[in-house]
Structure to design on (708 residues):
């Protein structure tokens, strides 16, 4: 049953009328907030923070205490699934995530398995339950996962990459091996997101950070098809409410029509696509989420308001817009600028919902 | 007068009939070649190599000795112009290019000037003359420059960047300052490319590596408009021959129509756009250059041939295709794979030129 005090975000995802355009920020719980940096220092490592449900809950709630955002998003790492598969996730200072055991050979892939979420990832579902309780129905909670392709890039490269050398060699020369891996990952993401939904996530989002490095053909074969498989396998209703699914491929602006055909409820759009064009292309199939360049938050408050207005007018009147940044908020942004952004969306969007 | 033994590349850029699809590779003179690494070791620094016309000539010719490529491209750095403006270019080991004096303030911008090419950049024009002589009419020579926006990103950030924090703050808050800077850069690029043309470059290309990080509006205002200004200011005929101009914006696949309207002869396309779509969108306005993912060169020879065939058939029959990679060749590619690629384009393209 819907006991939400603010359900703008869920309504907009389902293209239902709202009073104001809802807004949240990708990576809204993070390093740009001094209270996050403080807690991070106390917690020890980044993974210690993710794996402690009380701390993950606290971090999730921090931006909601500062800003009138319309949704909270679970604080967690994108690589929890491969970690639960035993790849040994660790963070080398200043180098980003790494895996002790990257996946390179046929036998590496054969040894992959769908992790038991209740056993290996209970720290995530516990955090979800706790956050839901603490939110007390104020705003909805978003669960999330990386896309199979995006998870696979880290697993095969052993960490972040610039040229995706190893996974692309696999894609071109041993596509059946990569498909085998993506299939295990898709099943894992389904189990993982369904567990988040059952624990209380009221909407879920799949982040395809690296789908945009593929050709159009390969994007459909190796990334989108697995996201579509996930969408089809998700529990789309819980507590008597529809659970909307958002897909976001960074640099996927050329493929919005195909993404909108995946069965998802909403498509995330980065700032390299005009929202008016995006809307014309996807029609009434899905809601759109986006799409301010996060770097606008380095600008003055008046410039931030101007850009918010430009994007609101670009989407235009009518239902189906969730305002967001086109990528995660940067660590050097002043929190006041994030506040200005959220307020501007609410204030300036009123005329678009007559 | 045209004394070229192989003019396929120039003809294809002008959408004239050719016997085979011409091919060259972005960054074809570079680290993946052992003979390059050997010369680089002898030369001292990377800039020593660029600033010595004899060595720059030698490096330019290396790939042409190995592979039957249809064009050579001047070996030089993308940042010679800001270096000539006195910003103090240096290369920190493993960190890429850096500037001692980044451009941040109004007075920094006011002090910028169009460098005297004959004085400060004669090492480039001397290299061009020498290469032309050494090529002896076998294949044409391509000159190049970075786009004003791309040069500005390095100048304002002080080097490579992930989030373009400083230049975007300037773009959003002090657009007039950025325009002032881009205007000096556009004039500098015109002088620089015209000097290359007068020294013997038979075609020129503008690399807009970072245009793709902008919104569609800002791309047109801050990158494309300055490239169009350059195109309009270039000497388009020399030695009785048309000098074709190619524009390439990495991740610019969404804006091909606008790029094709700039007055250029050809548009570079990366692998995230299907060449059949690209051709349908630009029509008869321009030739297209591209677009194999350079990572395909990590795959087997049969897979490379397969991808070449896919791209040839995607462009289809008719004039106006220069085959290339969608970005520079990676340093870990085996030279034999590059050879296989070049041969495959020639062999497999014959049926497309009946």
């Amino acid at each position: 049953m819907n006991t939400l005090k603010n359900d703008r975000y869920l309504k907009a995802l389902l293209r239902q009328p709202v009073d104001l355009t809802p807004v949240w920020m990708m990576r809204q719980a993070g390093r740009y907030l001094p209270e996050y940096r403080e807690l991070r220092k106390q917690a020890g490592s980044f993974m210690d923070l993710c794996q402690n449900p009380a701390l993950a809950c606290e971090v999730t709630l921090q931006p909601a205490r500062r800003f009138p955002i319309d949704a909270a998003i679970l604080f967690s790492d994108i690589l929890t699934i491969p970690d639960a598969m035993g790849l040994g996730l660790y963070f080398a200072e200043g180098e980003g995530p790494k895996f002790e055991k990257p996946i390179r050979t046929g036998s590496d892939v054969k040894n992959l398995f769908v992790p038991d979420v209740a056993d290996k990832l209970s720290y995530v579902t516990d955090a979800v339950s706790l956050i839901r309780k603490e939110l007390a129905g104020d705003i909805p909670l978003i669960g999330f996962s990386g896309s199979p392709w995006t998870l696979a890039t880290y697993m095969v490269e052993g960490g972040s990459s610039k040229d995706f050398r190893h996974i692309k060699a696999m894609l071109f020369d041993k596509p059946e091996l990569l498909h085998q891996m993506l299939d295990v990952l898709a099943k894992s993401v389904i189990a993982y997101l369904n567990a988040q939904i059952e624990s209380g996530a009221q909407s879920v989002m799949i982040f395809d950070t690296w789908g945009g490095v593929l050709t159009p053909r390969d994007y459909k074969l190796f990334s989108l098809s697995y996201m579509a498989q996930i969408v089809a396998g998700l529990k789309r209703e819980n507590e008597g409410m529809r659970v909307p699914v958002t897909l976001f491929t960074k640099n996927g602006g050329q493929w919005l029509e195909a993404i909108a055909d995946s069965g998802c409820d909403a498509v995330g759009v980065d700032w390299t696509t005009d929202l008016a064009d995006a809307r014309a292309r996807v029609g009434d199939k899905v809601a759109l989420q986006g799409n301010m360049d996060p770097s606008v938050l380095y600008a003055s408050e008046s410039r931030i308001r101007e850009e918010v207005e430009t994007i609101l007018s670009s989407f235009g009147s009518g239902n189906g817009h969730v305002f967001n940044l086109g990528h995660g908020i940067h660590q050097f942004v002043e929190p006041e600028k994030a506040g200005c952004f959220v307020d501007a969306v609410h204030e300036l969007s009123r005329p678009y919902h007559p």
In short: The longest helix of chain B spans residues 175-199. Chain B touches chain A at residues 163-165, 168-169, 172-173, 212-217, 219, 251, 253-254, 271-274, 277, 293-296, 298-300, 303, 307, 310, 330, 332 (CB under 8 Å). The mean pLDDT of chain B is 96. The CA atoms of residues 123 and 169 of chain B lie 35 Å apart.
